[in-house]
Write a structure and sequence with these properties.
Helix content is 19%, strand content 30%. The protein has helices at residues 2-36, 169-178, 190-200; strands at residues 53-55, 61-63, 72-74, 80-82, 91-93, 99-101, 110-112, 118-120, 129-131, 137-139, 149-150, 156-157, 202-206, 215-223, 225-232, 235-241, 248-254, 262-271, 278-285. The strands form 8 sheets. The chain has a 4-stranded antiparallel beta sheet, with no helix packed on it. A 3-stranded antiparallel beta sheet has the order 13-14-17. The longest helix is centred in the N-terminal third of the chain and has 35 residues, at 2-36. The protein is rod-shaped.
Length: 298
């Protein structure tokens, strides 16, 4: 009986040890199963993602980047962006990959400005001209003729005549006694002098009626014209001096290649007789791009 009780006690101890060991094995298996979901799958030839997906750097399957369409390419972020179009011979790509017109080679009489456009060179100032604050030639203050003085604008004008000094009574009586008639000096008012100058100083500007692609042929006509400064679209393009006695002069003015097709033409005229400076306004039309002049055969 004593042996049976001892054997039963040993059985209960062994059963307790077996239960503890089974619990430890179950906990270990549970931890291993939980860790298997976060551990990257082993890289083996047999592992692959479903269609339309690809493994990332961590071994997870993510959607694959779609192939770009024709005319597109993949940028650094993996996005499909349009290809840069091939530029024409007259264009080049800018910093953003857009095609922009090339800077045209300037002619000997032109130079590129800050925007890369060809603008006329500042002409050398002719006799009677001086460089202005903008680098353009402006009329110098002309030397005034006898009996004229420069006004506040530098224009020669005739001052109003001063009344003749009064003759003393004794001199008047002596002249009458000698039988000589006194001389009376008549002076014209300043308004009449200015009106006379205005009538003798005329100017007119004529521009072509047809469109032009390279130059405008303009004609300036009038009397007593000294100098003409031409502007096209607000820019000084040429200054000419009219020879004395000549009444008509035709010049070629460059066409602005950019901007509106209808361009303003302005002529600032100064006169030899000191008349007030005049500004004449007209307009000319630039031919459209690709326009071809008709060819006549005779």
């Amino acid at each position: 009986m004593t042996h049976l009780l001892a054997f039963a006690r040993r059985g209960r101890v062994i059963a307790s040890l077996v239960g503890v060991l089974a619990l430890a094995v179950a906990l270990f298996a549970t931890a291993a199963t939980a860790g298997a979901g976060t551990t990257p799958p082993p890289s083996s030839p047999t592992y692959s993602c479903p269609p339309g997906q690809m493994p990332d750097a961590y071994g997870h399957c993510v959607p694959a980047t779609p192939p770009c369409k024709p005319g597109q390419h993949e940028d650094q972020a993996g996005h499909c962006v349009p290809d840069t179009p091939p530029c024409s011979p007259a264009e080049h790509p800018d910093n953003n990959g857009h095609c922009v017109p090339n800077t045209p080679p300037c002619s000997p009489a032109e130079h590129p400005d800050n925007n890369g456009q060809c603008v006329p060179n500042t002409p050398p100032c002719a006799n009677g001209e001086q460089p202005g604050p903008n680098g353009t030639c402006v009329p110098a203050t002309p030397p005034c003729a006898a009996g004229q003085v420069p006004d506040q604008n530098g224009t020669c004008v005739t001052p109003p005549a001063s009344p003749p000094p009064s003759t003393p009574p004794a001199a008047t009586s002596a002249t009458a006694a000698a039988g000589t008639a006194p001389t009376t000096t008549t002076s014209r008012p300043a308004s009449q002098v200015e009106a006379t100058q205005t009538r003798s100083a005329t100017a007119a500007l004529r521009t072509p009626t047809r469109c032009s692609s390279t130059t405008f042929r303009v004609t300036i006509s009038g009397r007593n014209i000294r100098r003409v400064t031409f502007r096209v679209a607000g820019r000084v393009v040429r200054t000419v001096t009219m020879p004395a006695g000549r009444r008509t002069l035709s010049v070629n003015l460059p066409v602005r290649r950019f901007g509106a097709r209808r361009q303003s033409v302005q002529a600032r005229v100064t006169f030899r007789n000191g008349a007030r400076t005049r500004t004449l306004n007209a307009s000319a039309t630039r031919c459209a791009q690709g326009a071809v002049s008709p060819q006549f055969t005779g």
